[in-house]
Amino acid sequence: MAARQRILIVEDDPASRLLATATLEHDGFDVVTASSAEDAIGVIDHDRPDLILMDISLPGMDGLELTRKLKADRATAAIPVVALTAHTMPLHERAALAAGCAAFLAKPVSPAVLSAEVRACLGPPAKQR
Question: Which of 8, 80, 97, 127 has the highest count of CB atoms within 10 angstroms of its CB?
Fold first, then answer.
């Protein structure tokens, strides 16, 4: 049996974190969460996710800065990062993609769109691990 893919949700808003968690768990993913970039670093070091769903506006280090750090590190550069933000202007999307995000989702996002984008960024499921 193939291992379930693990998603890290980095989101400081509890309601947004809960919605994304419920959506992705319903789709069969293992989900871990962090409410700040600093907490996310600890999770990533301990339990490497297959994909990171990243809020842009976080307390302390923002999501774009964390994404740039992850993409600059060979150990984490290949982990796809999907930006999830209430900042919906085209300049925000360009900044997220320039930082290394694989995709950009604007809040509020429907569960169907969230699921489809996560699956697209993960690619075809692994046969067996």
Answer: 8
Question: Does 16 map to a domain?
Answer: yes
Question: Within a domain: residue 1?
Answer: no
Residue 111 domain boundaries: 6-122
Averaged confidence pLDDT in the chain: 92
Domain contains 129: no
Could you read off the pLDDT of 86-113 as tens digits, one per residue?
988 889 999 999 999 999 999 999 999 9
DSSP state of 6: E
Please state, in angstroms and rounded to a whole number, the distance separating the CA atoms of residues 114 and 126.
20
Give the whole-angstrom CA distance, residue 58 versus residue 111.
22
Contacts of 59 (CB under 8 A, 6+ apart): 12, 36
Helix axes of 63-72 and 37-46: crossing angle, nearest 10 degrees: 30
What is residue 123's predicted lDDT score, i.e. its pLDDT? 84
pLDDT, tens digit (0-9, with 9 covering 90-100), for 20-35: 999 999 999 999 999 9
